[in-house]
Amino acid sequence: MSNKFLTLACIRGNESLSPRPHYPSMPKYPKGASEKNMEGSEAKAMFSVFGMTCSACAGSVEKAIKRLPGIREAVVDVLNNRAQVLYFPTYVNEETIRETIEDVGFQATLIQDKMKERSSEVCRISINGMTCTSCSTTVESALQAIPGVQKAQVALATEEAEVHYDPKILSYNQLQETIEHTGFEAVLISTGEERSKIHLRIEGVRTDNSMRMLEKSLQALPGVQEIDMDRSIYKFSLSYKPDVTGPRDFIEVIESTGSGRYKAMIYPEDGGRDAHRQEEIKQYYRSFLWSLVFTIPVFLTSMVFMYISCIKHALDTKVVNMLNIGMILRWVLSTPVLFIIGRRFYTGSYKALRHGSANMDVLIALGTNAAYFYSVYTVLRAATSPNFRGTDFFETSSMLISFILLGKYLEVLAKGKTSEAIAKLMNLAPETATLLTLDNNGIVIGEDEIDSQLIQKNDVIKIIPGAKVACDGFVNWGQSHVNESMITGEARPVAKKKGDTVIGGTVNENGVLHIKATRVGSESALAQIVRLVESAQMAKAPVQKFADHISKYFVPLVIIFSFSTWLAWFLAGKCHGYPKSWIPSSMDSFELALQFGISVMVIACPCALGLATPTAVMVGTGVGASQGVLIKGGQALESAHKVNCIVFDKTGTLTIGKPVVVNTRLLKNMVLREFYELVAATEVNSEHPLAKAIVEYAKKFREDEENRGWPKAQDFVSITGHGVKAIVRNKEIIVGNRSLMLDHNIAIPNDADDMLAETEDMAQTGILVSIDRELIGVLAISDPLKPGAQAVISILKSMKVRSIMVTGDNWGTANSIAKEVGIEAVIAEAKPEQKAAKVKDLQASGHIVAMVGDGINDSPALVAADVGMAIGAGTDIAIEAADIVLMKSNLEDVITAIDLSRKTFSRIRLNYIWALGYNLLGIPIAAGFLFPSSGFRLPPWIAGAAMASSSVSVVFSSLLLKNYRRPKILNTLSIQEIKYPKGVSAEEKNVQGSEAKAMFSVMGMTCSACAGSVEKAIKRLPGIREAVVDVLNNRAQVLYFPSFVNEETIRETIEDVGFQATLIQDEMNERSSQVCRIRINGMTCTSCSTTVESALQAIQGVQKAQVALATEEAEVHYDPKILSYNQLLETIEHTGFEAVLISTGEDRSKIHLKIEGFRTDNSMRMIGNSLQALPGVQEIDMDPSVNKFSLSYKPDVTGPRNFIKVIESTGSGRFKAMIFPEEGGRDSHRKEEIRQYYRSFLWSLIFTIPVFLTSMVFMYIPGIKHGLDTKVVNMLSIGEILRWVLSTPVQFIIGRRFYTGSYKALRHGSANMDVLIALGTNAAYFYSVYSVLRAATSQDFKGTDFFETSSMLISFILLGKYLEVLAKGKTSEAIAKLMDLAPETATLLTLDNNGNVMREEEIDSRLIEKNDVIKIIPGAKVASDGFVIWGQSHVNESMITGEARPVAKRKGDTVIGGTVNENGVLHVKATRVGSESALSQIVRLVESAQMAKAPVQKFADRISKYFVPLVIILSFSTWLAWFLAGKFHGYPKSWIPSSMDSFQLALQFGISVMVIACPCALGLATPTAVMVGTGVGASQGILIKGGQALESAHKVNCIVFDKTGTLTVGKPVVVNTRLLKNMVLQEFYELIAATEVNSEHPLAKAIVEYAKKFREDGENPAWPEARDFVSITGHGVKAIVRSKEIIVGNKSLMLDQNIAIPIDVEDMLTETEEMAQTGILVSIDGELTGVLAISDPLKPGAQDVISLLKSMKVRSIMVTGDNWGTANSIAKEVGIETVIAEAKPEQKAEKVKDLQASGHIVAMVGDGINDSPALVAADVGMAIGAGTDIAIEAADIVLMKSNLEDVITAIDLSRKTFSRIRLNYIWALGYNLLGIPIAAGALFPSTGFRLPPWIAGAAMAASSLSVVLCSLLLKYYKRPKMLDTLEIRGITVE
């Protein structure tokens, strides 16, 4: 365990590789070299090592390196393929090391400049004077504001700061100065964690010269880094390298410098944090005692002596006027309490207020000052007045301070207890140690007792029984038991012998040990544990933010409330608001009010809130450390208490992680000791873990275990993946697996076979041992379960925590272990990134996930999990990555960690309830809430005591956690010892020239195997770029290079395969159709979009036009031969809207370049001509005003870098070309629109607010009203003129957009929302103008203007539009996110003719051209589509496909632009760039989907045609009805408001109807929901092609599934082999594969693929030659291989060849058919030899998906072209009842139509070309993403992840989207149907309620906004919870 923490120092110190060495290093210095001549000559090198697959490989590399002379240390990291070596350059160089690695069999490359030191240090500072959260927040903010500070944390509970800073930018002194500047005392604790430091005290120094002399002597020592001197106390502080020197060297140098007159010793420590805490306690105690000395007399004179008549008489004796002796005494005694003893509160409040914050000191100072200075006023009044009677409150101020000091004293006393865990850890180190001096032979020649701080690396220390181990190290001599419970929490003593590691601070139990020191000082395990616990106690839990947030406002609020309390009681007293009897006889109403105010001030306690979390976290982490559970801070504690799902790694976590021999069975009489002697002698030469397990077990049979010497093994051979063999004692020993024995023709008896089968069933590995070619024994090796694993899993279940096992091991072993331990969910064969992906999947499904692991391969998952728990015995990387370290490596500590976190957070909740409850209850009581009813009031001194006690109680509440005991259920676990199992690509060619395309008609193809044969034959020809064969349409399309091959050669090749081929001429002409995308600015509602759409569709040559209001874009399909896109733009402009071109088609690549350096137009023309001459350039557009060139080109022929090269070479270097800066497209337009609406709204407010105030507010303020009513001309007042002047710019300047919009709409015969707004506001405005003119010309006219109506209407509508465009921008975030995936730059590689990299260049990713080679480093985005030509890695494709797990990539694999490279470096050859890339196509698909209208949208379009005209008619009718009713007295005059007449009332109703109606809400109901829905689908890996697909999918009640590739994986695999004759399986498959390799049939490929597993050269095997090969179509193949006739095929082929088929073989064939498998017979030389079963396995989760569909009431049907037997078997297995088998493609489509005819809404799910007719015929076609392009093209929905569960997600998403659309329509229609009648005054007669026009306008604006926000809620869509319960494991092969 110590090694883990020891190595952590290495990680922090130099960022080296983290895995610890497998083998001890060779001698520290090379033979013959002395330590002195090696000083300072050490070097470090990092190598990239490829080819390692396991820890055994890493061990081989490490051992080989360490055998070299001059190697100091070597560490090999198999996960990252790295080796780090420390070496002495005088003895060995980097090239020798590299060659050594390659000699072992791995490829090695030196990595330059990898090990630079990081520029970061950690400084810890003690801060004195903080009292509450406000103080700590102030300091933290000040520190974080300093440049160079990377992270700062200030903990109130520990009164410390931990600052991560860049020492190159600032020093720790600046940090201290900053803290001092904030008003607190700063004391440095430590300045970094990467250096060793010691403080020495020197005695005998007399002069400064002596100090300087000593300094120079010390500075000359090697390894000394820094020296600080403090001459006043003769102190030297030295930083040094512990590997080179140490404190004893310093003392020796000092004492030898002055001829013995100087004496050096460790500087006595002042106790650090503990000393400061003790001093603080003493200070508070002294202050409290002194305050009591003065306060008790004050208390007695005011509270007690007043009841003792004689004393009372003396105290009441008058001195001057009404001033008595008692008053003077109290004044004199309370003054020192307030200003001397209590000065800390003044200084504290001054510092806080100086930095703009208010803390608890402010409250105390204000409260005590209020009481004191009022009392002083009373005393002075009494002294100057002969009849003044007042009461002083001196006792209040002094008692307040006394009680608060008592509270602070108790608080610091209790807070000291919270950090006892650290104090206990620090006290573990012994004070002294016994240093041994050894001679060259290792014999002890002297002992010396030294201070333990003087121990240096490589010292040998003697540890006697009962003594503490003085430092980390390893046992050099002796054996004993060591109690490590104080470090690991493990109670049982651990046996220690020579070579074992020990940890400093542990206790030696019985024997004497000699320890060699390896880690001392700050590097020791104990020091690192202390640092870890300190950091944990510093780290804030997220819940702490709650207290921090409250603290900002707490004190100011209390001050306001205190003042309000005083004022309320004072005014109530003055105004006789309560009886005089309530006032105590000794007070007046002012004094009573003052007491209440002071009580409120001093009872409020922000400290209790601030201490609630940190104290509990401190105690919790301390308790955890004492239990062996190291918790790294509050974040980990908080997350752990919510955990409901734990993911366990297997090896080393659930199991012990070390293989052991668990059983031995001998097949022959032999002495077991002799048997293991021979086996161990053979295996000792192997590095394999199983070999080591056997050797370790063999030691038990040896007496000389310590100095073992095995017999010599000659002719040793290691057969990779099989075993070993050697000659030992003249006997041939073979140890290995079954195949090794068969290869050596060693017979395996039946009982040995049974033993092997039994071991495999029990998750064990069976090893066979042969001696002299006879099988002698069987060994069973297992990685046994950890003690108590089953019980822990069972307890977790009872705690409602789900357990999952994720392992890289095989499925068999994984399932066996999981079954044994009781885990139901298993993921096997998982790579490290797949483990992390599984964790993320669980998190996405709503789980709070903990990951428990121990290895490097677990670290990604440990980091990804909410809580990572590392096994203490695991690797350093795992421990570093984890949040919690389980020191004892016991699984039950997982339960302890979770239980402790739950208990801690229960305590935090309790603390918060107390702290908040105290304030919420205490403040009202202090304010006198109970006084009126009960007469109870809280004197200020009692309130102060209560405040002090609240903080103390919170701290004591947290301290109760110290009594934590782990769950009782764990005590019942019988954890004894380890429980053993029961029973003991073809490479891309560089071709030049232009590419051509040819299409052939190919007749005679019947299946995909035929198509495969044709495709393979074509691709074998030279010069073929690509070939695609479509069996459905009998077509073959070929891309080729005419300089290498011609069309006739291709045609002949097809005919040679056996099919008739004809070249189709002119098939590939460009289509006469292009797609143009245009942005349209100015549309406001559905009426606008319908107008534009109609205008576009009326143009000749337009094939289809769609206009989307939500995106404000048009997509037009047009014939470029008939019209140009300019005509489309002109048409839109003519309809009255602004048109901006986005793109002009999807068939051409286009680039925009900016040219700098122009002087004349002639230069432009010259460059234009140069570019036009380039091959592949199609069109050039020039814009001289901005020096812009737009070029359309063929990407196969040329590209943007060629253009730049031509431009820059044209003008002799004076021209400079670059990509034209983009304006941001849709996003920038959206932002500009938002800015415009925002500006318009602000300007409208500037004018509207004064209009509103003059008409609505100032009329109620007499003075202002009088001024506004002042007449100017006749009845015209100043107010009317002001309103007219202010509302006019709002109406005609700010509101002009509504005029232009309505004009454009009316000009084209339609009416939109602008028409309604313009009519409504104009009616109000022009009536008001009429009213003003009448008032100016008439002496008796009394009218009301409505200027406020028009201006407020426009203001509210602008606000609504601003919020609407803001929200609409969010609906298209999916496209923005997709577009952001493309990287900005790429690294272009230049290769020589041999493919070697000549140079690298960083370019703009838009400059990538086809066939460029791009370098992708780990963590970078793939810059373009292409394929890998070098390297291997894992690529995260989740952003494109939605599949969370990274995908392995190697040479020949395709990659997608925008995906992220995870770990390795890749060289990618670009195939698709620009608009051709997959990312661009997905963006276009999603854009088209968001453009496409759902059928339900037609409903809104239909309404919008009539909506506005109807509203205008209704508005006019409303006005007319009310006007006539008023004229003819149809309602009482009392209904008319006093400020109006009947005309004005009617006008208001009419305008309200006009402006409340909202067509926009209807228009946005569908498109916004469809936009968000399709965007969400894309993010989930489901590409939905528009609203039609979404609408149909939500109605689906029947799904037709294809079988192959949809329900099954679509790739046949061999699942069973049965031999009918004794034969080695490898030889059997050698003959079959040699025959089948010549066939193109899928079953033949499956057999060959399976056969590779038996070959060592599995990647590119060379099979024996097959002569006379014959393929019998539909039956099988035959050939002569190694002079044997091999026939492989079906039953009918065997019968045709007269080969007898036994009855048991017939039964086997029947059995395979029943299991949906294909039986293949194999005959050798006319005799039936074997039966192969081949199957296409079911996809993971297929059964669950069908079951879930049934529960959703969706019927499932399977339609397949396969035979009925296989079809029925698959259907039965998956749970489908209806099956159609042997169906041709057209029959699948017919079945879909039959289902539709019977009333079903049908979805078809398929993946192949043969499914495309059915995909088109179905209501919804769903294509599997891994399927063919034709299927994907034909489908409506593409399932990118190829997971069947996405069928359910697609249906569920469509249902949720259409629920949202219905809700939108209900709201939009309901709003209009309800709002219009209310606006028309329907409620006015009964309730008197009417809707002013400006409120109606605000309601209209809000309706559109609410629809958009309602749609945006879809962004939070989560797939159905039932899918999270699916157990999607791997493919099950039976």
Automatic annotation (TrEMBL):
InterPro entries attached to this UniProt entry: ATPase_P-typ_cyto_dom_N, ATPase_P-typ_P_site, ATPase_P-typ_TM_dom_sf, ATPase_P-typ_transduc_dom_A_sf, ATPase_P-type_domA, HAD-like_sf, HAD_sf, Heavy-metal-associated_CS
Location, primary (coarse class): membrane
Catalytic activity, as annotated: Cu(+)(in) + ATP + H2O = Cu(+)(out) + ADP + phosphate + H(+)
EC number: 7.2.2.8
Molecular functions per Gene Ontology: ATP binding; ATP hydrolysis activity; copper ion binding; P-type monovalent copper transporter activity
CDD domains on file: HMA, P-type_ATPase_Cu-like
Compartment(s): Membrane
The UniProt record lists the keyword Magnesium: no
Parts of the chain that traverse the membrane: 287-308, 328-346, 358-377, 397-414, 553-572, 592-612, 912-932, 938-961, 1240-1261, 1281-1299, 1311-1330, 1350-1367, 1506-1525, 1545-1565, 1865-1885, 1891-1914
Keywords: ATP-binding, Copper, Copper transport, Ion transport, Membrane, Metal-binding, Nucleotide-binding, Repeat, Translocase, Transmembrane, Transmembrane helix, Transport
Membrane topology: Multi-pass membrane protein
Stretches assigned to the HMA domain: 43-109, 121-187, 196-262, 996-1062, 1074-1140, 1149-1215
Record's signal peptide: none
Enzyme class: translocase
SUPFAM superfamilies the UniProt entry points to: Calcium ATPase, transduction domain A, Calcium ATPase, transmembrane domain M, HAD-like, HMA, heavy metal-associated domain
Cross-referenced Pfam families: E1-E2_ATPase, HMA, Hydrolase
GO CC terms in record: membrane
Family: Belongs to the cation transport ATPase (P-type) (TC 3.A.3) family. Type IB subfamily.
Protein name per Swiss-Prot or TrEMBL: P-type Cu(+) transporter
Organism listed in the record: Liquidambar formosana
